[in-house]
What we know:
Layout: E1 4-7, E2 10-13, E3 16-17, H1 18-25, E4 29-33, H2 34-47, E5 54-58, H3 65-73, E6 77-80, H4 83-91, E7 99-101, H5 108-116, E8 121-124, H6 127-139, E9 144-149, H7 175-187, E10 191-197, H8 208-226, E11 233-235, H9 252-259, E12 268-271, H10 275-278, E13 282-293, E14 298-302, H11 311-315, E15 321-323, E16 334-340, E17 349-357, E18 364-367, E19 388-393, E20 396-401, H12 406-410
Parallel strand pairs: 4-19, 5-6, 5-12, 6-7, 7-8, 8-9, 9-10, 10-11, 11-12, 14-16
Antiparallel strand pairs: 1-2, 2-3, 4-13, 13-14, 13-18, 15-18, 16-17, 19-20
Helix pairs in contact: 2-9, 5-6
Bound molecules: pyridoxal-5'-phosphate.
Amino acid sequence: MGGFSYRNHELFCEEVKIQEIAEDIGTPFYLYNYDIIVGNYQRFIEAFKEFSPLICYAYKANSNLAICKVLASKGCGADIFSGGELFKARKAGVPPDKIVFNGNGKTRQEIEYALEENILMFNVDQRDELLLLNELAKKKEKVARISVRVNPQIDPKTHPYVATGLANSKFGLSFHQAEEVYRLATELKNIHILGIHTHIGSQITKTGPYLETLKMLNEIISRLEKTGIEIRYLNLGGGFGIAYREETVPSPQEFATMLSPYINRDYRLILEPGRAIVGNAGILVTKVLYVKNTPSKTFIVVDCAMNDLIRPALYNSFHRILPVNNKGSEKDKTFLVDIVGPICEDGDFLGKDRRLPALRPGDLLAILDTGAYGYAMSSNYNLRLRVSEVMVIKDRYYTIRESETYEDLIAKEIIPEEME
Ligand SMILES: *Cc1c(COP(=O)(O)O)cnc(C)c1O
């Protein structure tokens, strides 16, 4: 649990006692550990250093500006999926030549914005996008650099919602179609082919699917090169899994050791990790509101809910949940409980059938490994206010986002005049 540890039964993040943050700012809140974020990034750089990798952090995992700035300041690039993420990346100080634009539904406006910013490349998802890109680049008298996203049709053995490399996925092109798009690209004056891209899914905990993918990419690259198409960037995407259940998952070094023999040193390597950079750096701190005993179960009702962390409800995903004060867990006095939120749906749970010490209203819980796809997927459902975020840097904590207010809930809403 690097970076989060108990001292005398109290949970700390580095030198900061989590209970004290909660007393200062109230609950619930997301808390991120600076050292873990930086360490995770540096492990990727180190592991793949012989390929001078460009790590493009996937902004969708967590785009808090402070987190983006930390990564940008260490030299990390950005994998963006929207104009909003491009805006964030530039605000965070990511230079344009470290930004790659992914996605299957880039709008005209987003493409124009990215062309104006001179980003490194567009990962093209299909033929019509390529034609639009060429048209818009021509209008702006620019050349758009591209990769084509290929779909290797490999099963990454992960949750079906996040397996994006299967034959029936909406993303990418089959090898055959990709070759046609590459050929078309050679004929378009305002398009410059830079590389090849793939992304096979998320929370992948085996090296095998990457190895298979890489071998297939090598095949298509050699076919392309035979027809005079030069590939300079090899982008293997993200998807590197983390240990939600303390299972063993390959480290960046293990991925690198496995993949290195198959990576051509003539190419610049791009990786797009999101979860593996921020996932284990974050926790969601919440307070027990009520304990409810029913004949069949004990429910711990907490002050965060599925609108704050939707992964359990959406993917049935597992997050470890720990008491912030662990005094009660001495000996074997634990109880089987469900941890649930206050939202009006039975799907609103954070954890089911967990062993926790006796809890009372006011006790704090930490929901672990919530740095990725936690806040980023939060909403105002039930008109709950989105929570604050803090970052711990060694012995201090900093608020990096204030919680919303009721006024925020109506800030963009307009009542038609005649109703006034
Ligand atoms: C979601 C996504 C990523 C990041 O995925 P993680 O599982 O968070 O590493 C990278 N690239 C693309 C194209 C994606 O869609």
